[in-house]
Each structure stands twice: as structure tokens, then as C-alpha cells.
Amino acid sequence: MKKIAVISGASSGIGKKFTETISEFCEELDEIWVIARRESRLEELQTPFPIRPLAMDLTERASFDRFSELLNKERPNVRLLINASGYGKFEATLDTELSSNLNMVDLNCQALQAMCQLTIPFMSQGSRIINIASVAAFQPIPYINVYGASKAFVLSYSRALNREMKSHGISVTAVCPFWTKTEFFARAVISDKEPVVKKYVAMYEPEQIVKRAWHDAKRGKDVSKYGFIARLQAGMCKILPHNLIMSIWMKQQKLK
């Protein structure tokens, strides 16, 4: 049976870095199925294992049918699933087009859940799932409202799924990065308007997030956070009232 890994959002950012460093986690794979909208970017990926580019838009439900058909046809042993597709918008909820907010939820939540549910029947003892959430998952964030809420879904879903899958020998890790230097900001920031985020307390590199995620996934941790600031923020969100957390955020970013 062919051993494979499946990585969505593989064409850029954290997903790309996972793809490039996958040998640190999986010593033997027959193939990596890499998923993103831009096929040319997928074909350019440099990996230690053969790749199969799957150009798909995971906001379209037809993509799930295509992926399911491929799984049922090939019947692979999926050793690793990484859900790294996602995007955000830094803008007031009512200033963001409804279609954009809906697509954000479709990709960040619906697609991730579908990929897990479709793939798990083809996983075996020792297989792992890594879902990209965010430190934003720990708190409500005005002006990054829908994105933060979608990542809260990813965190909650992943932790609960990890508990469900224990009896099957499958682990699930939610990765919660702080601000990370990726193409995410090109889509999140509205260039012709005053930026919502005016102060970035810290900015990390994708390789830092991924290295920590590999380490935590190997240990079977259900949540992975890189950096003192990320851990501090997540911890403070557990003990401080969320109204206070939101007020601190609004003051820090000079928002009304």
C-alpha cells in the first residue's frame, strides 16, 4: 500500500515550509499530494519525495468530491495530513464583502473539517494530522473578527478530534502561530485604507513555526505554540476577562 502525505495550502507560507521539510518528520513516503489553487506553484516545490500536484480551490465543494474519488481509487495509507489552507481579512466585519467573509469560513473551517473527515478512513496507527490554527483562536478580536472566530473553530475541533482519534492511534495537533512572515498579509491588509494592525509585537519566520510544530506533533501534543509571546498571550487569554483582552487590543492598535 502506497504511503503518502497530504498537504493543503502547500504553494506558499507555512504549508510550503512543511512540504520542504517533511523528511524531518516522515523518513519514508512514496508520494506527497500537494493541494493549492496555483498548479504552477505546486510543480515548483522542492521536496525529498515525489509530489502529485492537485490544483483545487477548497472553497468549492466539488473539490471534496474530486479528492474523495482519488482516495477511493488509490486506497493509500495516509501517514500525514496537514491542513495549511486559509486566509484572513484585517477589516471591520461590515466593511468586508459578505462573499469574502463566507469564503473565509468555507476555507478555514469547512474545508479543513472536510479534509479530515475524508482522509481519516485512509489513515492507520501512528498517522498524524496537523491543522493550522492561530494564536487568534484564544480570544475574540474586533476588526479581525471572522478570521479569529474561524481559527477558534480549528483549535476546538482539532483538540476534540485528537481525543476521539486516540483509540485509533491517530494524533491531531493544532498549530497556533503568532504573526508570521508569509503571503497571508498581502490578502489580509487593505492597501488603500488605514491599516487595522498598526503594531506587531513580534513577527516570526515560517521555519520557526514549522520546526516547533514538527517537534510537538512527534510528541503527540494537541496544541503547538512557538515563542514566548505566543505562549504568554494564550495564557493571559485563559485568566483575564475577554472584555479586557479586547480593550487592550483596541488600545494597542488605536482602534475605536
What about the largest sheet? Answer: 7 strands, parallel
Radius of gyration, in angstroms, nearest whole number: 18 Å
Give the helix proportion (percent range).
Answer: 40-55%
Count the E strands.
7
Strands of the biggest beta sheet: in what spatial order? 3-2-1-4-5-6-7
Low-pLDDT runs: none
| C-alpha geometry | globular
Strand content: 5-15%
Characteristic key phrases:
alpha/beta, 256 residues, 43% helix
SSE layout:
Elements (H helix, E strand, L loop, with lengths): L2 E6 L4 H8 L10 E6 L2 H5 L7 E5 L6 H13 L2 E7 L14 H22 L8 E5 L12 H21 L5 E5 L8 H5 L17 H13 L4 E2 L3 H12 L2 H11 L4
Parallel strand pairs: 1-2, 1-4, 2-3, 4-5, 5-6, 6-7
Helix pairs in contact: 1-7, 3-4, 4-5
Provide a compact summary of the structure.
The chain is of the alpha/beta class and 256 residues long.
Description:
It is a single chain. This protein is of the alpha/beta class. The protein has helices at 13-20, 39-43, 62-74, 98-119, 145-165, 184-188, 206-218, 228-239, 242-252, and strands at residues 3-8, 31-36, 51-55, 77-83, 128-132, 171-175, 223-224. Helix 1 (13-20) crosses helix 7, helix 3 runs parallel beside helix 4 (98-119) and helix 4 packs parallel to helix 5. The termini are far apart. Strand 4 (77-83), helix 4 and strand 5 (128-132) form a beta-alpha-beta unit. The chain contains nine helices and seven strands; from the N terminus they run βαβαβαβαβαβααβαα. It is globular and about 55 Å long. The mean pLDDT is 92. A seven-stranded parallel β-sheet has the order 3-2-1-4-5-6-7, sandwiched between helices. 43% of the residues lie in helices and 14% in strands.
